[in-house]
Amino acid sequence: MSFPSSEAECRSTCGLCKREAIAAHGPFNGRLVVHIGDGYSDLCAARQADIVFARADLARFLDKEGITYHAFEDFFEVIRVLDAETPETPETPRREPTGGGRQAG
Ligand SMILES: [Zn+2]
């Protein structure tokens, strides 16, 4: 996986670069990268994520850059959107509970 913006640029603006933290978990092999944040330090991770949840300062920065995101107030909202937007595919296996059925949300 490669990123268009340089690490040098990133280090000068991010205190702790969350984009690099995300990249460390790759390769993602087609799985979606979701970033949830509220501040400037989330910006460069949000630029790279497939799905972004933003509030407060991060939402304002993303508005300026024209980057699409989901506004959120709490994590129940995040879960609801992710359930609706992420189809279950062989690339995104989920562990099913053993012995019982899934509970409807
Ligand atoms: Zn960064």
Could you characterize what this model shows?
- With 105 residues, the protein is an alpha/beta fold.
- It has a single domain, classed as HAD superfamily/HAD-like (Rossmann fold, 3-Layer(aba) Sandwich), CATH 3.40.50.
- It is 38% helix and 10% strand.
- It contains five helices and three strands, in the order ααβαβαβα.
- A three-stranded parallel beta sheet has the order 1-2-3.
- Helix 4 links the parallel strand 2 and strand 3 (70-71).
- The longest helix has 11 residues, at 75-85.
- It starts with 6 loop residues before the first helix and ends in a 20-residue tail after the last helix.
- The mean pLDDT is 82.
- Zinc ion (ZN) binds next to loops.
List the helices and strands and how they pair.
Elements: H1 7-13, H2 18-23, E1 34-37, H3 43-48, E2 51-54, H4 56-65, E3 70-71, H5 75-85
Parallel strand pairs: 1-2, 2-3
The protein binds zinc ion.
Zinc ion is lined by residues 10, 14, 17, 19, 44.
Structure summary, number of beta strands? 3
Amount of helix: 25-40%
Strand order of the largest sheet: 1-2-3
Q: List the secondary-structure elements in sequence, H or E.
A: HHEHEHEH
Specify the overall morphology: globular
Judged by helices, strands and strand pairing, the structural class is alpha/beta
